[in-house]
Amino acid sequence: MKVISRRQFGKSVAAAAAATYAGLSLPRLALGEPHPMRLEYPKGFLWGCATAAYQVEGGAQADGRGPSLWDVFSHTPGKTHNGETGDVADDSYHLYKDDVQLLKNLGVGTYRMSISWSRVFPTGTGQVNQKGLDYYSRVVDELLANNITPYVTMFHWDTPAGLQGGWQSRDTSKAFADYCAYVTKHLGDKVKHWMTTNEFICFTDLGYKEGQFAPGMKLGAGPVNQIRHHAILAHGLGVQAIRANAPSGTQVGLAENAIVVAPVMETDEHIEAAQKATRDVNAPFLTTLLDGKYPESYLAHEGTNAPKVEDGDMKAIGSAIDFLGVNIYVPLYARADGSAQGYAMEPMPTSFPHMASPWLQLGPECIYWGVRNVCDIWKDKVPAIFITENGTSSDDVLTPAGRVEDVDRVMYLRNHLTQLHRAVSEGYPVKGYFLWSLMDNFEWADGYSKRFGLHYVDFKTLKRTPKLSAEWYKQTIANNRVE
User: Fold this and answer.
1) What tens digit of pLDDT does each residue of 135-172 get?
2) 404: domain CATH number?
3) pLDDT for 223-270, tens place per residue?
4) Is 225 assigned to a binding site?
5) How far apart are alpha carbons 38 and 420 in whole angstroms?
6) What domain range includes position 125?
7) How many CB atoms lie within 10 A of CB 335?
8) Which among 137, 212, 406, 449 would be 20 to 30 A from 287, CA to CA?
9) How many domains does the chain fold into?
């Protein structure tokens, strides 16, 4: 018997299929007729990109900026990949006009950026650094001059190192509110969309429980729960401060990487199980924020480790928001069962596909369920929703011809935007999408080893080069559809 390879077998099957269908007259679309897989987004849907201050700005000591906990952490041996820091990053502090042109060339209408707290208040409180505020005023002016609307995040993890105790201290929540009040009072005539915080779990649990992020501590359950409380309190006080100091009509929200739980199958029982799980796994953050109270099950589970709450805290935490930003990358899966909680979480097999970052598991349906679960559970509490981050790392290589052929990123984006279109078409109030990220940058503890950008950055020369994914996203924006 002759042994043939899988490749040879595949060729023979393809040849047989071609012969079989050669004589058939298959239906064809008329020239120019829209293909059914061209998924149109609604007119006015907002397309954008996102970055964060410490990841792109550099200028760590420029013009009076004070150190943040990430400056301290990244300069501590062994904390980041190869000891890399955000001292220079993409040097967007000096090259921001070039970066605005990258945005303009993509055709985006919006840009999500963050403000470095310690660039405005070098120690977190007290004396204002006018040069720092002036920098952000120039960036906003440049965006507006190019018809790009800024969506500004007040805090993207770079806590001023001068704040004693960091997020262990309740005073940091109050200092954050003062910072929000000052910045929005002075930039509120130009910026109409503000986000308070970005991804609670990353600057609380990863910073104070796991030790993987700044400040690199490993505390017990009680102190960590109190830190979590101070974080969501900061958000609530920040919302109040922005509303009190920005012009009428200003939109206020936050960007949260709520844990996405997808049903293993789309049956009523599994969908209900996934929504129960969504409430539970997001208990310390989004659930409490949108409910305006801690779930009884969460408090019972934590017992004496539950956070201590003062008068007025929950009213602030539950402040109404104009929109919710969700950062969505990966799914978890739940199935219905006969337990008291009504669900079980499915373990991820080792064979589950992932992108260049091992944690970035490939489940594009997460972006649909991330939207649907939140909107179905909290309904009128979420009047509008934005995807404030979605994207992927890739093992990008600049070819001798000066190109980056990141077909894996294009695949990832096409699949996620197809799933997002499903949510939009079903009437969920998704208003826009911010792709992470505009360009390769400092990827926190991974340093410069993981590239998430649409533009390849040579970190020695700082030259930006558009990748294949930038071409694809530009076409998507121009056509307002996914193909």
Assistant:
1) 999 999 999 999 999 999 999 999 999 999 999 999 99
2) 3.20.20.80
3) 999 999 999 999 999 999 999 999 999 999 999 999 999 999 999 999
4) no
5) 13
6) 44-478
7) 17
8) 212
9) 1
What values do phi and psi take at 17, rounded to 5? -65, -40
Which residues are catalytic, by number? 199, 389
Looking at residue 7, its pLDDT comes to 45
Rounded Cα distance, 422 and 435, in Å: 18
| Helix or strand (DSSP H, E) at 252 | strand 251-256
Q: How would residue 20 be classed by pLDDT, with cut points 50, 70 and 90?
A: very low
User: Who contacts 374 (Cβ-Cβ below 8 Å, separation ≥6)?
Assistant: 258, 278, 286, 324, 326, 382, 385
The length of the chain in residues reads 483
Give the E-state strand segments of 337-457 in sequence order.
343-345, 385-389, 430-436, 455-457
Nearest to 327 by CA among 377, 273, 390, 281: 390
Is the peptide bond preceding residue 437 cis, with omega within 30 degrees of 0? yes
Whether residue 25 is contained in a domain is answered as: no
Assigned domain for 14 exists: no
Task: Answer yes or no: is 156 within a domain.
Answer: yes
Residue keyed to tokens 């939207």: 371
pLDDT in tens, 265-321: 999 999 999 999 999 999 999 999 999 999 999 999 999 999 999 999 999 999 999
Q: Which two tokens stand for residue 201?
A: 């779990």
Examine residue 215 and say whether the peptide bond preceding it is cis (omega within 30 degrees of 0): yes
pLDDT attached to residue 358: 95
HSE toward the beta carbon, residue 60, CA cutoff 13 A:
19
Residue 156 labelled as part of a binding site: yes
